[in-house]
Design brief:
It is a single chain. By secondary structure, the chain is an alpha+beta fold. It folds into two domains: 1-34; 37-90, no CATH class. It has helices at 2-28, 103-111; strands at 40-47, 53-59, 66-72, 77-84. A four-stranded antiparallel β-sheet has the order 1-2-3-4, with no helix packed on it.
Length: 119
């Protein structure tokens, strides 16, 4: 009985080890995590239907900051308008923090309490 289970257990151990090795390598290798480009922040989002929404995004910081109005549907993202950032949103003291992606970031976003927490 043990002779039949041994190859399966070894394969399982190998797969778990590979998963941990890939996770370790992803954090250690440069350029493997995050995105390259200007920092972005979602300013607002308006749902138009089950799969359509209009999103306002701030791209860049300081004098280079631009506000994009994007139409987002199931299969595409279209730039609807580009404008300078409104003066009430310009605050050079608080830099844009690019949020982490993945399950941990989404869980932290859902569990935080505050006025901007999603419902």
């Amino acid at each position: 009985m043990l002779q039949n289970a041994m190859p399966a257990l070894l394969l399982l151990a190998l797969m778990v080890g590979m998963a941990f090795a890939l996770k370790w390598a992803r954090r250690r290798l440069p350029g493997a995590v995050g995105h390259s480009g200007p920092p972005m922040q979602v300013l607002s989002s308006l749902s138009l239907g089950p799969q359509q929404r209009v999103v306002t995004v701030q791209v860049g910081q300081g004098d280079d900051a631009v506000c994009l109005v994007l139409g987002v549907s199931q299969g595409s993202v279209n730039a609807l308008h580009q404008m300078a950032l409104p003066p009430e949103l310009v605050d050079p003291a608080t830099p844009i923090v690019t949020p982490a992606s993945g399950f941990a970031a989404r869980l932290a976003q859902l569990t935080q309490k505050g006025p901007h927490a999603p419902r």
